[in-house]
Design brief:
Chains A, F: It holds the Pfam family HupF_HypC. The complex is a heterohexamer, with 2 copies of chain A, 2 copies of chain B and 2 copies of chain C. By secondary structure, chain B is α/β, with parallel strands linked by helices. Chain B contains 16 helices and 12 strands. By secondary structure, chain C is an alpha+beta fold. Chain C has 8 helices and 15 strands. The longest helix of chain C has 18 residues. Classes of the chains: A alpha+beta, B alpha/beta, C alpha+beta. β1 of chain C pairs antiparallel with β2 of chain D. The complex binds iron/sulfur cluster (SF4) (2 copies) and magnesium ion (10 copies). The site of one iron/sulfur cluster has 14 residues of chain E, from α15.
């Protein structure tokens, strides 16, 4: 029940509490009332049922992948 | 970067690390390890990637109470169907998944065909927009889902209030995941070697909310994302714990999940909802595991605005949903599976939602006429 | 009628079989569909037949909305029936078209639809030689429904049939999957998605006639309409008793279609197509057929997507990871999900 | 499906082309329409053709109510298309049938309609060899619409055409007028009339085949459906450029039909028939044809109703008093009036 | 017995008496006598029997203001169309004839196709039954007609009151016949040798109500029934008066029409309606010739409940309805007749109702492609 | 606007103010609130817009027809 779609922020309207995100080349307006942090274009959000539920830490994603490369090369 | 997480080449390489590790764990346990995912979207992702077949023999993946449709009590389903049937003047707003869920005698799809008005919404925000655009209609939104979804529904009530809409209300069947996992893990018959925790529920609740899995029940747990690499990573991290004899609640989804979760979402949930005792299919009453609207929002509470009484009805005869959701059996062990119970004519709710344990199993892992033997090829 | 500004919509009286019906036929249908055989004031159209095997196919078109990116209900109604004949190995010749119109439908839209039908017929080299028009009240139809029926001659060289399928045959499609179904869905549901998906709606008969002439190894064709690739492949598998093994990695799906279906919790393999068809062809001709499709017909996304194996009527998808899952018939139309 | 009491109505999912559609086809259409050529899981039906002239005709049926005294929409859909072929001088062979069903329609009613179609086909000696089913939402159709398309061979001896009409020819009908249109109207409007009018809905092809064989003087036939005798006669007159002179006193109309139409301010000459047709025949054969119809076909109300005169495409009615009035095409469907 | 009145053999025999008498009158007048029928149903009966063609050359029959649709003012028609267009929540109830009447820019049929709700009723009683059965709908019944119809509409208001319906009202465009005949007969240009009086209007008003035709205007008049024999009898009685130089208002329909008419119907009309000045097409304002609901029934008066303003619009350009209704010309003399004005696309209202003077003429007595010469054969 | 249909009374309900009349073999319930006179089966009514507007005097009809026969034979 928790289909989440990652999307890259391309426009932010804090006053009206929405952002436009792009996922797989498609743009969609989503609510950002649940997001505490500041948002700027280029940020990534996880979207569920029309609302962003969290900001994606791309640095973490990178670290994660690097970790795998290490493990895989360890053999 | 996110694309890399679904790169099949990377996936295959990880798999080549995962399988030997799973074999090692199986050797230690004397049987393949059994992991349970408790998120329907994990169920789907595993099924669609074919992961279960790739790990067959060395690791077993089972589906727990992760599909909100499947765990919704028969009585609750009957209630919304009864409301739709009795009040053709209402617009029942719902996520697509609830449309075909069978109640005791009918479904929303059946009632729509008989004249009930049922609208499918992708977001509760759309339901509010619809209510605003149709002032002569009365919209009842069916709030189903866990911590991931409940904040969005709370926000829809907030939006209706701020736009002063009198024709929008929510029928809340929301439930909370940690509460039911406590019950699940307390079952002495349960034989689960590790839990794959729901990444998006944890995005809201935070990793710490699930610490009890390892601290109280000594079961390894990993918060997982939804890409194939994420899932393999979760399995890897669980296997590592088994092999090293540890039990921790590890965050395998740090790019999104924080220790404390999403505080704003948690606050909003708290502001609009209060915990109540509710029935879960297969689990019975689980104290304080449901989310009802706070009294001060009763104007927006469909349970108050449009109370329905339905006679208590036994769960569908022979449906083994409870045991499936507890991981005690797999779907094909249910005597009704694929015989009386199919996605077309589901008997139990696990067969309804595409992410339901039985439906995913039916759709992706099993076939009426085919043998199950060689599908890994 | 068209010249009076207050006579811009279809009335129930246009369907009563009287003077207004007569005018409607003259001003629209006969005008656009003009040909020697069509005379909708007689009870039936007459044409000459030759000895041989004829194919006949009918379909009702009820698409909502009636205009969508890449086509309209009229183009669809012509393509749909032409394509059913085409994939049956027939050369479509004549169509009939029957309309059920909702009272209040604008003549301007009706004219666009009819012009589009006429144009599609021209492209495909078929003629509409008989028709009918009914008008129903408000709330008794959704704008306009069109049923087309087509007849054509089986191509002498074509030899298509379930019983010909055998292990080793290759499975091809002529292009990307899911566009039509998704284009329609996006028009219908106000999902606020900023992306234009174009329906693939197109007549296939000229292409199928050519490939059937050249490739005697073609054993079966199927247009991938309602239910999409998955449902249609499963139907064929069940009817022929062999298994399909499809490769997820080989399936041509546009990035934007992939993205949006993921967003909405849909599966592109179950979305309808209106210009795509599946071909089962003997292994030795598969390569050349693919080259021919890509080069001579600019079907640049034509792909070999799998092969036939001995089995029991199942469709398997080899996942990108190397796993396998089964594809079954669609059970319930695709709906946007949040799960 | 039929065995489960809570699965008694058609759902949108029955039209999605997936498993439910498959079941619907199996449980209803294939079961009742069973024949060698029908296999609705393929894209088209195939039949053998002979050299000659073929006729094709299509009609959509949207009648409300779907069940009425004397028939139902299924029987009507089969008769309507068979009769269009029949009056064109063709021997109907095959039909296609395409259904648009409103969500919520009871399977019990659908089954009655399909059984009725199958039965009518049997009586008329035709087969339904291809079909289609779509389901639309509530309020997007009125229960069920059926489009049938029929093909048949022109009878070698038949020589029908507007250009053959000439002064002196006689005009016949095969029975009483107005029953179908009135039966429908009475079912639809709650007029509180205590009288049962029975639709004349019937297939005519066996009769037309026989009379065409015997009477080479038959020059034109026309089934008197939408618009009734008046509109259809006017259409023929305009197309052939001769005048029709009909005798009011000779027109066969049942007393109860006469009475009710008077009561409601309607004209039976503009009401639809579904088993009645007009014949223009050379004068020298008129008497024998009439006798043949009355005696060999029990068409006891068959009548000679007028004749053809040189003219300009008009239809005149000689009134009982000896006056004359013109009949024009219907302008607007008949409505109950109080004036 | 009543069947005898439509016996064609009897009709033909009467005709054989009528024609010589008409010739005698024509000889006296120096031209064929001109009689006017002032009932649309007479217009229809004459047309359908072919009587006009049978009398051609010896007697001329013309249609007067006897079709309520034809005499309804353009502005009134625009009002009901505007109401239907503006208020898709209302159900406009009407007799079948009003459906296709063209207003300045639209018609009820057009508005129905655009979403207005228009229901055809055979009797106003049915409209009340409909309102009672559809309590959520608001029914506005279009009251059109003369003294024959007005009592039935008054009874519908009575029925709505006694059933305490709040959702039924009447838009009354009812008119009275004697009043407009006074205006008609006062026209110095009028050349009419006799009036065929409306038998069913007279059933309500009584014969005496039309005495003024002969006493004040010295025009012979006969109250006529609607069977062919009735109409020939009326013509016979008029011709007899002409030949003998008398002018009386004769009751040619004594089996139904009484001297004083139907007192109960007259009382009910008086109770519910009051005379008001209204516009007649072709006649302009005719004082006290309309029937509006009495103030005490304003709850049932759609003119009060749903007031509509429409801008005054000129009558259709070129429409000669006024002259047709006054008998100054026949329909085919109108320059628009059968060219711009046909039953399919009526310009003027006389072309709309099947009983309208121009529509009956078009339908039964004239043809686009045919010659008019030989239709008597 | 005054289409009237003659009908023979076959049933009367004065209390509820309706009668069933038969015309041309067809039966229909009509309102009789506008009829002052007593009604019995066999009477004839003239019906307009669902209400009887008057009772038909069959004796008058007979006299009328006899008169015509006289006139026609007079010649
Ligand atoms: S197969 Fe059906 S009946 Fe059996 S457990 Fe699953 S949902 Fe319940
Ligand atoms: S023909 Fe038309 S425009 Fe002319 S008077 Fe008659 S209604 Fe008016
Ligand atoms: Mg016909
Ligand atoms: Mg088809
Ligand atoms: Mg098709
Ligand atoms: Mg037709
Ligand atoms: Mg609609
Ligand atoms: Mg097809
Ligand atoms: Mg036809
Ligand atoms: Mg026809
Ligand atoms: Mg089809
Ligand atoms: Mg309906």
């Amino acid at each position: 029940m928790c289909l989440g779609i990652p999307g890259k922020v391309v426009e932010v309207n804090q006053a009206e509490s929405w952002a436009v995100v792009e996922s797989f080349g498609v743009r969609k307006k989503v609510g950002i009332a649940l997001i505490d942090e500041d948002l700027v274009p280029g940020d990534y959000l996880m979207v569920h049922a029309g609302y962003a539920i969290g900001k994606i830490d791309m640095e973490d994603a990178r670290v994660s992948l690097e970790l795998w490369e290490e493990i895989l090369h360890a053999q | 970067m996110l694309n890399k997480l679904r790169d099949p080449e990377l996936g295959k390489r990880i798999l080549s690390k995962l399988v030997p590790l799973a074999r090692e764990a199986a050797r230690l346990l004397g049987r393949p390890a059994i992991f349970m995912e408790v998120c329907g979207t994990h169920t789907m992702a595993i099924a669609r990637s074919g992961l279960r077949s790739l790990l067959a023999g060395s690791l077993e993946l089972r589906s727990g109470p992760g599909c909100p449709v499947c765990v919704t009590d028969q009585g609750d389903i009957d209630k919304v169907i009864a409301l739709a049937a009795a009040r053709h003047d209402l617009v029942i707003g719902t996520f697509g998944d609830m449309l075909r869920v069978p109640g005791t005698n009918s479904s929303l799809e059946q009632e729509r065909a008989r004249g009930a008005r049922v609208e499918i919404f992708y977001s509760p925000a759309e339901a509010v927009t619809f209510a605003a655009g149709h002032p002569r209609d009365e919209v009842v939104f069916l709030g189903v889902g866990f911590e991931t979804t409940a904040p969005a529904v709370a926000l829809s009530v907030a939006a209706a209030r701020s736009r002063d809409l009198k024709n929008y209300s929510v029928l809340s069947f929301h439930k909370t995941v940690p509460t039911v996992l406590e019950i699940l893990l307390s079952d002495p018959e349960l034989k689960i070697d590790g839990l794959i925790l729901p990444g998006h529920v944890c995005t809201v609740t935070g990793r710490k909310a699930f610490d009890f899995v390892s601290t109280k029940f000594n079961v390894p747990a990993v918060v997982a994302g939804f890409e194939p690499v994420d899932l393999m990573e979760a399995a890897y991290l669980l296997l590592k714990q088994i092999v090293s004899g540890r039990a921790e609640t590890v965050n395998g989804y740090p790019r999104l999940v924080r220790e404390e979760g999403n505080n704003k979402a948690k606050e909003i949930m708290k502001e609009y909802f209060k915990p109540v005792d509710v029935q879960w299919r297969g689990f019975g009453m689980v104290p304080q595991s449901g989310l009802a609207l706070q009294e001060r929002f009763s104007l927006y509470d469909a349970a108050v605005k449009f109370p329905v009484e339905v006679s208590e009805s036994p769960p569908p005869r022979g449906c083994a949903c409870g045991d499936v959701l507890k991981g005690k059996i797999v779907s094909s062990d249910c005597p009704l599976f694929a015989r009386k119970c199919t996605p077309l004519q589901p008997v139990g709710p696990c067969m309804v939602s595409t992410e339901g344990a039985c439906a995913a199993y039916y759709q992706y892992e099993w076939s009426k006429t085919g043998s199950r033997g060689n599908i890994g090829g | 009628m068209a010249e009076e500004k207050d006579k811009d919509i279809v009335l129930l009286s246009h369907g009563d079989g009287g003077l207004l019906t007569h005018q409607l036929l003259q001003d629209f249908f006969l005008r656009y569909f003009k040909n020697d055989l069509l005379d909708s004031l007689t009870d039936a159209a007459v044409f000459s037949s030759e000895p041989g095997r004829m194919a006949i196919s009918t379909d009702a078109f009820v698409v909502d909305p009636v205009f969508f990116p890449g086509g309209d209900i009229g183009k669809l109604a012509v393509c749909g029936t032409i394509n059913d004949l085409a994939v049956s190995g027939a050369q479509p010749l004549y169509l009939t078209a029957s309309f059920v119109i909702e009272e209040g439908f604008p003549f301007a839209d009706l004219e666009k639809i009819i012009a589009s039908m006429a144009n599609t017929c021209r492209v495909a080299g078929v003629q509409i030689i008989a028709g009918d028009t009914k008008v129903v009240g408000r709330g008794q139809a959704d704008k306009v429904y069109i049923t087309t029926t087509g007849v054509g001659y089986l191509l002498p060289g074509a030899n298509l049939g379930y019983q010909r399928l055998e292990p080793g045959d290759k499975v091809l499609v002529n292009g990307c999957l899911g566009n039509h179904g998704l284009a329609i869905l996006l028009q219908r549901e106000a999902l606020g998605l900023d992306s234009q998906i174009i329906s693939d709606c197109a007549p296939l008969s000229i292409m199928t006639t050519e490939i059937l002439k050249r490739f005697k190894g073609i054993k079966l064709m199927r247009d991938l309409t309602r239910g999409g690739l998955a449902t249609n492949a499963k139907e064929i598998a069940m009817s022929s008793g062999v298994d399909f093994w499809l490769d997820e990695a080989a399936l041509p799906v546009e990035d934007s279609v992939k993205g949006i279906t993921e967003l909405l919790g849909l599966d592109p393999l179950y979305l309808a197509n209106e210009g795509k068809f599946l071909i089962v062809v003997a292994a030795e001709e598969a390569g050349e057929l693919l080259r021919y499709l890509r080069e001579d017909w600019s079907a640049e996304y034509a792909c070999q997507i799998g092969d036939i194996q001995a089995g029991k009527g199942n469709v398997y998808l080899r996942t990108a990871l190397g796993g396998a899952r089964q594809l079954n018939m669609m059970a319930g139309a695709p709906l946007p999900r949040i799960c």
